[in-house]
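Schema walk-through. Below, the input block comes first and the output block second. Nothing else is stored per chain. Lengths vary across the set, and this one has 126 residues.
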Amino acid sequence: MQIKAFSAKTGLSTDTLRYYEKEGLLMPERDSNGYRCYGNRDAEWVGFILRLKEMGVPLAQIKEYARLRHMGDATIPQRYEILLAHRENLIRKQQELAEHQAFLAQKLAVYRSAMQKSADKCADDI
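--- output ---
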């Protein structure tokens, strides 16, 4: 499919798709007229790129992953290591978020107790 149809399929603008190509993230085939031709594999790859971005993987790492991917299966161990390192980052972030949630729960309990005491005192004053 050409860039407009691919843009509609992926939800990315044509400018973004061209930027991804310029940065080496996408390497679409070209037809005899030089028009970009995207396929299902490109759509899956864009989905993977977007997932990496949502997970907070820096663009430099995504570009390195893309470079390795384009080199073929011989780079699978390096790509595995990139994803493994990012999984460790996600685990660490998950632990930090759990700590933040626990802190907030404790603080909310303090405020809830203070509000209840204030409401009880007002009821006693009536």
